[in-house]
Amino acid sequence: MRKKSFITMMAFLICASLILAGCSKSNSPVSNPEEEKEKEVVVAIYRDGAMEELDAATYNGPHFLYKMIYEGFVEDGGNGQILPRLATSWDISQDGKTYTFKLRKGVKFSDGTDFNADAVIFNLKRWVNNDRHSVLTSVNVESMEAVDNDTVKIVFKNGAYPILTELTYPRPVRFLSPASITEVPGDVMGKFTKPVGTGPWMLESYTKDQEFTLVPNPYYWGEKPKVDRITFKVITDGQARVLALQSGEVDILGGDLIGKIPMESFLELKNSGAFETFTKGTMCSHFIAFNQDVAAFQDKNVRLAMNYAINKKSIAENLFDNLGLEANGLYQTGVPYTTPENNYGFSNDKEKAKQLLEGAGYTDTNGDGIREKDGKNLEFNFMLSTEEFPEWKPLAEFVQSEFAAVGIKVNLNILDKNGYEDATMNTKAFDIVLMRTSSDSWVPHGSLLEMFTILSTSNAAKVWYDEGLYNNIIKTLNTVDETERQKNYDTVFKFISEEALTIPIYYPITSFAVNTDKIAGFEIGVNNYAPIEWQKLDVKE
């Protein structure tokens, strides 16, 4: 009897264990390491992401990160298209001053809080009517209100034609979660805590000056990313970025605002067969700006002479092996409202340059190869930074030799990005400086304001200030009639060209090298501020 009971009990235990095993199998499938492996893309970036400062209402950190994390009412679709984003539609009054936006419903920030009209007003209050943003026509606001939970009405002080375009910019016109701002009494900006937006990506981790990782926003309303994370590795040196791609440390290299490929390395990568290379034209221009407080530059003949001294064709064809174009004016062909008659540069003519300098009173009296006037050498400090644009060093060295050929001595001063930005935006601590224009939806309107308006940060213009020029720029931006606007732009561009207020030298391209053995779906983005179609990136199985 005891034996029978024992057998019965054993049978029960075996059945129970089988049942439990079956339950365990149905709830916890056997893990497959290959199936669970996350898809990660690693990108080289030339600078820190400044995540602790990446407030949507500021200018801190790389432009493109704002577009990955934050969204605005509208987005730049390229070729003049303005696409709906957090606004599904909008109405503009006949005088161009009142904009009524219908908001996309059901959108959440990446922290799970709701995006609505109140969140829009909260964000707008942090940047409108702030002199820091005076280069925007959309900063001047008379009133704004949340009509209902899904409708916002903004009345601007002027019916400037670029307002809607400006609302596509990466910053400061995008929306962050009000929950990411700690209230500070008397300060509309409050205290920024972390970047939280409605965009397709959100911050996962950040190690300052080393790397940061973005992962998909689980609440994103639009097209979902195909990869699980994008890690950006900070590598400030251009050649070190190339080595990182070659060693497999990173998968993607390039992009004007990410980490440009040095010119001498691009062809090497292209010809190696180990990587796929991609190029695309830009609407950006590289040029030399004068510090107008330097006495010599008050003489137009000196500015003209320095324009004639440089062989721009040789820069594009010989120095950069036709990766880009010679500059024929401050803006590239194709920038709205530019024409060959209103936007032009000066051909290379060193004899004419010498004649202009002699006419301005600069001669080489002691035979040292440097012209002088009133006992003072025609000598300038030439400032640049190579972190964002590695090609600026050979470009500056070429320009240095061109100036020397006509009796002008320039001393190269290479700064890191922070020092460069401080000098150009705040202290004006340079004689001449290599600069770039803004690009894409920023040109020409935003670019003109950025360069030829008195900035609150320095009480000077970034490039040059002339009251008549400034007034004509403002007049042009507020011109509703298209024909009249073109005439006004003709006046603006011709003045910049005729007065030689800059030295246009090179029209760059944007370039990438990609490890396509691993990466699939790579496409260059619509503009420099959205340099890669991040959502289309995938990792091959």
Automatic annotation (TrEMBL):
One cellular-component annotation, GO: ATP-binding cassette (ABC) transporter complex
One annotated GO biological process: nickel cation transport
Listed transmembrane segments: none
Protein origin, superkingdom: Bacteria
Record-linked InterPro entries: CntA-like, Peptide/Ni-bd, SBP_5, SBP_5_CS, SBP_5_dom
Membrane topology: Lipid-anchor
Protein family (similarity comment): Belongs to the bacterial solute-binding protein 5 family.
Name of the protein in its database record: ABC transporter substrate-binding protein
Source species: Formimonas warabiya
Taxonomy of the source species: Bacteria, Bacillati, Bacillota, Clostridia, Eubacteriales
